[in-house]
Amino acid sequence: MIVTAAAALVLAPVTPAAAQTVGADERAEGLWHVDMLGLDAVQAEGATGEGVTIAVIDTFINPDVPELQGADVQVRGSTCADPETGAPRQIVSDDPAHAAHGTNVVSMLVGTGQAGDGGPGARGVAPDAEVWFYGVGSLDAADPEHCALQDPTVEADGIDLTRDLSWFAGEVEENIQGLGDPTALAARAAIRDGADVITMSVLSGSSANWEQVAFESMIAEVPIVFGVLNPLRELMLPAGPIGTNGLFPVNAIEPDGRLLTDRETGKSSGMLSNNIAVAAPGDQLLGVGGADGWGPTLIAGTSYATPITAAAVALALEQHPEATPFQVMQAVLRTTGTGGAHDIEWAQDRLGAGYLNVPELLAADPRNFPDENPQWVTSLEDPRCVDAEGTEGHFDESNGLPRCHWTTGPFPEGLDKYRAVYVDGEPIMTLDEPIETPYSKPQTDAGAEAQTGREPSTVSSHLRTSVALGAVSLVGLAAAGVIVWRSAARRARSRGRSEERGEAS
Fold first, then answer.
1. What distance in Å separates the CA atoms of residue 316 and residue 323, rounded to the nearest whole number?
2. Which of 47-56, 71-80, 142-151, 440-449 is predicted least confidently?
3. CA 194: distance to chain centroid?
4. What does the pLDDT read at residue 21?
5. DSSP 108-168
6. How far apart are CA 478 and CA 422, in angstroms?
7. Which of 49, 80, 119, 457 could be stapled to 24 by a disulfide with Cβ–Cβ 3.0 to 4.6 Å?
8. Residue partners of 377: CB distance under 8 A and separation at least 6
9. b/e string for 252-289 if b means 16 or more Cβ within 10 A?
């Protein structure tokens, strides 16, 4: 585990065997997840991730490794630039000490299964998916002194995400100074660019950074899966999205089904996380290299269980284009284990809803499940807010903030505030004065008078004073056009694939 003041990198456990180069005769043991997840059968039946875009947020990548040749991997750019020159940070590297982690992550998605020597190599769960790689470079240099945030994919007439909005202390604010976190910025860019699912195996940024990301993920219905902490050898403060409401934390299991465990300390992965969604293979996997060199290597860590889960989501999105992304995520959590579709049962052993089950996921029809994010807690009365001592969710008497064992936030009232500015185009209200944002919509004369008058709009007044955690309806999301466009695009891609196979659409 690499921990810096700026971030924590979710690498393999700190043991010498975490990355082990193996010969051709030993590689089969690194493909145990292929059997556990039934990949031979599901891929033979046409589930390959075709037409689905997976965004990867990591540090560096080497797209030239043999196992990625022929895969659709696009390097979208870096969210960090040199503060003095403005030059984007280089994120493509053939140095395994830098790029092995991010390259291994991508290989779990779209690895071809063939190494450079012609023998078995890293094999991806969704080999035909399109991968967008957003890099941040070294996390040791992710602080403002070394990293000037840059929007890597902003269009000439688009909104620069480094200077649009921020979320701080429960309020939407202007971001004039371009402050933030490069990994959170990469997630926002991936959502804006149209990714179908996002996978992240690095931890960086503040809770406020990731609450803003969670809002935009909820609005666009783009699931974000990320790796929880590997076994800890020393106490540390959680970083990045740990504890964020509405995201999908993934834990790692070993071939025997146990949580990833440090043999020296006996500690297992997932500490400090109370809202783990699912567990997936994350030990003794065949990767593309380690810090000491490139080549078939056994790797371990929640870093690799995470893209495996994201790739399974991609398979389900491909196979069920009429379902919404959150219905697909419902299916992921309702098909764990071996018993077919079932109600979600949250475990207390850091397994979340259970073991990822790809065949059952693809067999289920997600349209039968609620169109709502299963990880999004909307009320302090939710049973997941109760801690191990039986303390229920409540408002803290000292500061009035909501307290829930499952999550540190954000909550529905914050989503309403953010949506009002980000989607509805309302101005930010500061000391009862409206401030236009890049998302503000043109006002009619009457509308402008209403926005600049002494009395703020009813909606704005309600948003500023509300503290209740009412349930959030997702019906209005389609009005923003994002979900409608994305679902239509998936349906069109699905029809195209069906026609190529000679199938009825």
1. 9
2. 440-449
3. 14
4. 78
5. HHH-EEE-TTSSEEEE-SSTTSEEEEEE---GGG-STTT-EE--TT--TTS--GGGSEEEE
6. 14
7. 119
8. 245, 384, 385, 404, 406, 407, 411
9. bbbeeeebbbbeeeebbbbbebbbbbbbbbbbbbbbbb
Report d(CA 82, CA 142) in Å as an integer: 11
Cβ atoms of 222 and 197 closer than 8 Å = yes
CA distance 354 to 142: 34
- Position 23 scores a pLDDT of 80
Tokens, residue 260? 């990833």
CA distance 309 to 351: 13
- When mean pLDDT is compared across 259-263, 333-337, 499-503, the lowest value belongs to 499-503
SS3 content of the chain, % helix, strand, coil (to 5): 35, 20, 50
Position 344, amino acid: I
C-alpha angle 500-126-315 in degrees, rounded to nearest 5: 70
Burial degree of 462 (CB within 10 A; 0-12, 13-18, 19+): middle
Strands 293-299 and 394-395: unpaired
Write the pLDDT tens digit of every residue in 97-113. 999 999 999 999 999 99
User: Which run of H or of E encompasses 288?
Assistant: strand 285-290
Packing angle, helices 182-193 and 207-220, rounded to 10:
10
Task: Kindly give the residue spans of alpha helices, DSSP state H, lying in 177-254.
Answer: 182-193, 207-220
Pairing relation of β-strands 248-253 and 224-227?
A: parallel
Whether the CA torsion 335, 474, 199, 317 is positive or negative: it is positive
Specify the pTM: 0.87
Dump pLDDT digits (tens) for 387-417. 989 999 999 999 999 999 999 999 999 999 9
Read off the tokens for 159. 């909104």
Asked if 337 and 231 touch (Cβ cutoff 8 Å), the reply is no
What is the distance of C-alpha 235 from the center of its chain? 25
Q: How far from the centroid of its chain's Cα atoms is residue 168's Cα?
A: 21
Quickly count: other Cβ atoms within 10 Å of residue 423's Cβ.
20
Q: Which long-range contacts (CB under 8 A, 24 or more apart) does 169-178 make?
A: 169/208, 170/414, 170/417, 171/417, 172/417, 172/418, 172/420, 172/421, 172/422, 172/428, 173/428, 174/428, 174/435, 174/437, 178/148, 178/149
Q: Quick check: 250 and 309 in contact, CB under 8 A?
A: yes
Please work out, in degrees rounded to the nearest 5, the angle formed at the alpha carbon of residue 497 by the alpha carbons of 72 and 115: 30
Is the distance from CB of 121 to CB of 288 less than 8 angstroms?
Answer: yes
